[in-house]
Specification:
Keywords: Cell membrane, Membrane, Transmembrane, Transmembrane helix, Transport. Belongs to the drug/metabolite transporter (DMT) superfamily. Small multidrug resistance (SMR) (TC 2.A.7.1) family. Gdx/SugE subfamily. InterPro entries: EmrE-like (IPR037185), Small_drug/metabolite_transptr (IPR000390), Small_multidrug_res (IPR045324). The chain has about 100 residues and is mostly helical. The protein is built from 4 helices and no strands. The protein is flat, with a radius of gyration of 15 Å.
Length: about 100
């Protein structure tokens, strides 16, 4: 169950980071509320995962899911660069996340 919490925490981390773009410096009410809720849910889920998963592993995977997710949304939704070098770097993050999961209890 801890790994599911961690995966969901990463998904809400993506929502939090993307939401920041829409808050316009926290001047727009509803995007700001949604972003704050996504951040709170993400952190709560992370704390639940930390009951079982070591903090170094959980934090690295949580940030990795967020980084890869936000970079992917940037490419697909915001027309950010999908250069081979950028995709290779994203793949390295994915490899690190998968590797940490593989060697963790």
């Amino acid at each position: 169950m801890a790994w599911l919490y961690l995966l969901l925490a990463g998904v809400f981390e993506i929502g939090f980071a993307i939401g920041l773009k829409y808050t316009e410096g926290f001047t727009r009410l509803w995007p700001s509320v949604a972003t704050a809720v996504a951040a709170a849910v993400s952190l709560w889920l992370l704390t639940q995962a930390l009951r079982t998963i070591p903090v170094g592993t959980a934090y690295a995977i949580w940030t990795g899911i967020g980084a890869v997710g936000v970079a992917t949304v940037g490419i697909l939704v915001f027309a950010e660069s999908a250069s081979p070098a950028r995709l290779a770097c994203i793949a390295l993050i994915v490899a690190g996340v998968v590797g940490l999961k593989a060697v963790s209890p």
